[in-house]
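Minimal example, chain plus 4-(1H-imidazol-2-yl)pyridine.
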Amino acid sequence: MRFDVLTLFPEMIENIAAQSIIGRAQNSGVIEVHAHNIRDYSLDKHRKVDDTPCGGGKGMLMAVPPIDACHEAVKALAPEMKTRTVYMSPCGQVLTQKKAIELSSYDRLIILCGHYEGVDRRAIDLLCDEEISIGDYVLTGGELPACVLIDCVSRMINGVLSDGECFEKESFMNGLLEYPQYTRPIEYKGMAVPDVLLSGDHKKIEKWRKEQSLEVTKKNRPDLI
Ligand code: 4FL
């Protein structure tokens, strides 16, 4: 799968995507992450990309023409790929595991990141298929949300996770939060690993984990029950 990020801060994307499992997946060729600087598509001699809001108000908005030109150039890099274009925004639908699985079925995601006070609405209406939020808070820009989306979608793609990193039992895959996990030492600062996990009784362990999942979900996320 290919990701193309349209941003004013391409290094933020490149640096994060070069690390850990996403970095490894890029090196092995299962995914590609490309960041494109919208400023390179400014037609202004001072490379200006923003302007004041029509109707007045604080701050600056990203203008349509550089975003449109950047998107056009990026689309042409892989015109045959099945592509979805998304805008990262607190006004979008909140990202879920289900949405990540759905987006992983595309060959390519083009992700638009806003900065300043946002972007001219026409850029979204003209270029984007949907708007995605990563939660009910505002950040300084869409770059960290874009990295969250890339991470979350990538790990649903075959070949990104190893067997040991398998995701079938983790939080959200069954609609509940994950049960608590322990490793050695068996006791630390007076805190013991629950006996049942040392019992070797796989039926009992399975049952305990199900109960714990339900317990932690009731306590922290009753909305998921
Ligand atoms: C995007 C916040 C997606 C939450 C500022 C610019 C944001 C965001 N989800 N804040 N974009």
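The longest helix spans residues 202-220. The mean pLDDT is 96.
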